[in-house]
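Exam revision sheet. Question 4 asks you to relate a sequence to its structure. Input first:
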Amino acid sequence: MMTWLREYLSKMRGTTRGTPPRVSNHEILWSWIGGFLGIAAVAWVNQLFFVGLDLSLMIGSFGSSAVLLYGAVRSPLAQPRNLVGGHFLSALVGVICWKLLHEYPWLAEAMAVATAIAVMHATRTLHPPAGATALIAVIGSSEVHRLGFLFVLVPVTLGSLILLAVAVLVNNLTKTRQYPEIWF
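Answer key, structure tokens:
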């Protein structure tokens, strides 16, 4: 028993030493430009079409999607299939969990995130920010809950597509980046 415990605890030390490698100032600049333009595009479309409605195109999980799309462009988790598919499926899971389990919020929250992870794994659309999208569908405001399945399309899918369009345009402006690595 003690051997198992010692081996288990030793896994928590990590496997490498040191800090992650530093990226170039050029890479930092392009990540900043992409992040700024991606979030600005979603916010601008929101301002044009959704102000005054009980609907916002901007959700918090898009901030972490921007980190992947513009800061880790080669990551498998940042590719279009993962971005759009992960957010879409997780939003769908989140809405379903809210509708079925809203009387037990703690259960709806846990079920939404855990099921979103499983569905993304099963469909090869793993996108970590989408776990937050599933959670937002459950813990969101009454406006989010009133949207029901519309939440899956607006803001989630539309916002994801805007971020994707900006990622394709911006990430290919420099010679050091290519996006996407794979579409589907």
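Marking note for examiners. The chain has a mean pLDDT of 95.
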